[in-house]
Amino acid sequence: MAWSKTKIKTKQGEFVEAQAPVIISASRSTDIPAFYSDWLVERVKQGYLKWKNPFNGVPSYVSFANARLIVFWTKNPKLMIRHLAFLMKV
User: Fold this and answer.
1) What is the 3-state secondary structure (H, E, C) of 17-75?
2) N or C: which end of the chain has fewer CB within 10 A?
3) Which of 27-59 are b and which e, b meaning 16 or more Cβ less than 10 Å from the residue's Cβ?
4) What are the tens digits of pLDDT across the range 17-32?
5) Nearest Cα to 25, choosing from 63, 65, 67, 72?
6) Model pTM score
């Protein structure tokens, strides 16, 4: 099953196609909650993020428009806990 797609407007004003998953599994290879929680919250506020595939270097966009659940994988949730109130109301 393919992810649904949507068009988003980037910070630079460019319209691009973005994946719009319902469930996002975050930080399996990088511990986002432990090291990049502030970055992730800013990206959620912006409504999208740009992701570069580590295997082929091709950039992709991910929209949070359809997201209903973000699964975090971490050994240290301490820094992410301060953002829980914001994430719960998004």
Assistant:
1) EEECCCEEEECCCCCHHHHCHHHHHHHHHHCEEEEECCCCCCEEEEECCCCCEEEECCC
2) N
3) beeebbbbebbeebbebbeeebbeeeeeeeeee
4) 999 999 998 877 889 9
5) 72
6) 0.85
Handedness of CA 72, 26, 41, 37 (dihedral sign): positive
**What amino acid occupies position 39?**
W
Enter the tokens of residue 70: 């973000």
Tokens found for residue 24: 């996002």
Q: Which two tokens stand for residue 87?
A: 């994430």
